[in-house]
Amino acid sequence: MSSDSMTQLGALVGDLHRLLRRSATRRANRPELPDAQAELMLLVRANPGVSVKEAASRMGTAPNTVSTLVRDLGAAGLMRRERDPVDGRVARLRVTEAAEQRIADHHRHRVALLTDALNRLDPEAREAVTAAVPHLERLAELLRESG
Q1: What is the domain extent for residue 91?
Q2: Which of 6, 67, 123, 124 sits most deeply, having the most CB atoms within 10 A of its CB?
Q3: Above pLDDT 70, what percent of the chain?
């Protein structure tokens, strides 16, 4: 694959992500969360009770940045910070029920958008896109491992 093709693939993946996120948010009639807040919310949802320090490490950012994101998500009713019962200096993070609902709504709208767009492709193109999914999953796995 040429360098131009790699550049095009990277740009396309980014465009698809942004288009789906923005379109799903509009369909859900909700304000869009900044990428960093959405990333933290999904990380905490997948790892309930993660500490601020652990979340920062996984996101590749500073703990004070995560603390700011937690404060903003807390003010929006989407995340709560709890003291660790063993070490009171450690904050444990959990998403709220409102966050769970927001994530579920977003997922439902994203699936509907993708389904509609895929159904408008010709059958051969739809099959090619669907067949590429396992390979894209493996590509994401390799990128996670190297990152």
Answers
A1: 15-146
A2: 67
A3: 99
Nearest C-alpha neighbor of 77 from the set 64, 95, 65, 52: 95
- Is 24 a member of any domain? yes
How far apart CA 17 and CA 140 sit, in angstroms, is: 13
Which residue has tokens 């990333």?
A: 39
Q: How would you classify the pairing of strands 79-83 and 91-95?
A: antiparallel
Does residue 88 lie in a domain region?
yes
Whether residue 147 is predicted with pLDDT greater than 70 in this model: the reply is: no
Number of domains making up the chain? 1
Q: Does residue 2 form part of some domain?
A: no
Q: Is there a contact between 50 and 92 (Cβ–Cβ < 8 Å)?
A: yes
- The answer to whether 47 touches 66, Cβ cutoff 8 Å, is no
* Rounded-to-integer distance, Cα 103 and Cα 97, Å: 10
